[in-house]
Amino acid sequence: MALTAAGVDCGTNSIRLLIADVAGDGGLRDVHRETRIVRLGQGVDATGQFAPDAIARTRAALADYAELLRMHGVERVRMVATSAVRDVANRDVFFAMTADVLGAVLPGAVAEVISGTEEAELSFRGVVSELDSARGPFVVVDLGGGSTEIVLGDGGVAASYSADIGCVRLTERCLHSDPPTPEEVAAARRVVVEGLDAALRVVPVESARTWIGLAGTMITLSALAQNMTTYDAAAIHLSRIASSDLLAVCDRLIGMTRAQRAALPPMHVGRADVIGGGAIVAEELARELRARAGIDELIVSERDILDGIVLSIAG
Fold this sequence. Notes:
By secondary structure, this protein is of the alpha/beta class. About 45% of the residues lie in helices and about 20% in strands. A hairpin with a 3-residue loop joins strand 1 (about 5-10) and strand 2 (about 15-20). It is globular and about 50 Å long. Homodimer.
């Protein structure tokens, strides 16, 4: 009999849920998958604390998720918190909130903060479990709100690094105008290049053959590259984007106003103000991977850390 398990991933920009049935062979069948933009990391880079309204938005979304856990008879849940939670001064408020909301459904359940290394490993496991090993080694990039995880591996993780260059953090730090000025974009690029230089000293991507991109920014870039008018998960999953097409989409996004981005059909309303920062990260990654490994395309996966979280509690 299949086990019904759930993973919750709470990041800087979004809180995400996967409820899945776990087969005897460890395969996952999605029951429910959902993303809410809650901007938990609002202002954290500047203040070092969670804002009360950010906690309230996150609590409201988590309460809805808890009801889904109850409705689907979830037997095990694991909630992980990533970049936004690692260094804030008032994170106890966040953990108390998660214990209250999740504990009402599954006693004792509470969020846990994980390191960038574990975040990278969970993302890698969630993605490569369904890929053809002949395409490895893989470089898996999870481009989030507060950080970007870069993982190299084949059968397992060989090297990983968590760089503080997420789309929310970069936007709050550098991209203040609407649209961003050339000077702001140049400053953001310097931050990204510096972050990638540190990351790629640790992660030797020169040996990689395939680049896999995860999470909301990458998914949105795929949708835009495919000229989608509505979000289509099946068409996005394992879609392949030539680097030239990726750079063209990123350049267009960076130069747009927030209102222009929000008007794009596949754009989530909560992502329009920060995706320019994510596009800068994606551009610089594309350039580095082409120069260092000769990789000239991005494959975008709908599988990600959520799948790794569920697999981590399935046994």
